[in-house]
Structures are given as structure tokens and as C-alpha cells.
Design a protein that fits this description.
155 residues, mainly alpha, 7 helices
């Protein structure tokens, strides 16, 4: 039985190798890349692919699952350190730690707050009911009244 050895590996072959290293089965790789399971098997068993796979394992290239597990393992320690920084920090350090903690929780800190001041000319509007304002605007639209809701003449 002859072993399949392509002259060179193509980008799709490298994707097959990467997915294999990440823990996908040959069937899952074939479904993702729209090819047969036999083609995936042939590529993964060729000499160059085997060398790449063994090099990746030897260099301890982490799979996505291993990275997720590592993050979950270290997250409580990192969160504890962050809370400690918030509690003990002073000035800018404390502020940065608090902002980071909020972002980790899915919130964003308020950077700027704008205040609006009421226009003194519109203070009379507070005294009018919605019916009175509506009636006034209808009169203005019909040309019966030349003053605005604040009592001043319109242009």
C-alpha cells in the first residue's frame, strides 16, 4: 500500500493539521473543510504533516481548550489581585484597577458627564399643559397666532 505524499502542503492542508492539533477528529475536519475523511487522513499521515504535528507537540503549542482551562484556573487569582489593587491602591492605580474590573464585568466606565441647563426662555412651558401647548402650535400652524409657547413673537 502506497503512502500519500504531496509534493508540497497547501493552505488547506495546514488548516487540516491545525485543526488536528486543536483536537478535532478527522470527520469533523472533513466536514469543516468540505472534503472527504479519507483525504484528511491521507494528509495527516503524510511524512511532512507528521513532522509538523510532532514539532507542535514537542514545542508545547497549546490547544484552544488548554488555553481556556488555563485562563479559568488563573482567573480567580487575577481577580483577587485586582480587587486587592482596588482596595489598597491610591490615586491613578486605584482608578485604573477599578476601570479594569468594570470592563472585565462587561461594563464600561463613564469617561465624561454632560449636564444640560434649562433654557430660561422655556420656563413658561413648564406651566402649560400638553393640551395648551398643542392648541398653541395648531394656532401657529394655522396662522392665527404669531407668538411662541414662551410668549415671544415669532419671526
Amino acid at each position: 500500500m502506497a503512502v500519500f505524499n504531496p509534493k508540497r502542503l497547501r493552505p488547506i492542508h495546514f488548516r487540516m493539521i491545525r485543526l488536528h492539533i486543536e483536537g478535532e477528529s478527522n470527520l469533523e475536519i472533513a466536514q469543516q473543510l468540505n472534503c472527504s475523511e479519507q483525504i484528511v487522513s491521507n494528509i495527516l499521515n503524510c511524512a511532512e504533516a507528521k513532522k509538523l504535528i510532532s514539532d507542535a507537540i514537542a514545542h508545547n503549542i497549546n490547544t484552544i481548550v488548554e488555553v481556556q482551562d488555563s485562563i479559568q484556573l488563573h482567573a480567580p487569582v487575577a481577580l483577587g489581585k485586582l480587587i486587592e489593587d482596588v482596595e489598597k491602591g491610591v490615586g491613578r492605580t486605584r482608578q485604573n484597577a477599578a476601570i479594569t474590573l468594570l470592563e472585565m464585568a462587561g461594563h464600561s466606565a463613564v469617561k465624561r458627564v454632560a449636564f444640560e441647563r434649562a433654557d430660561p426662555r422655556l420656563s413658561r412651558l413648564k406651566e402649560l399643559t400638553p393640551e395648551q401647548i398643542r392648541e398653541h402650535l395648531i394656532n401657529v400652524a394655522a396662522g392665527k397666532d404669531d407668538t411662541g409657547p414662551d410668549g415671544n413673537l415669532l419671526n
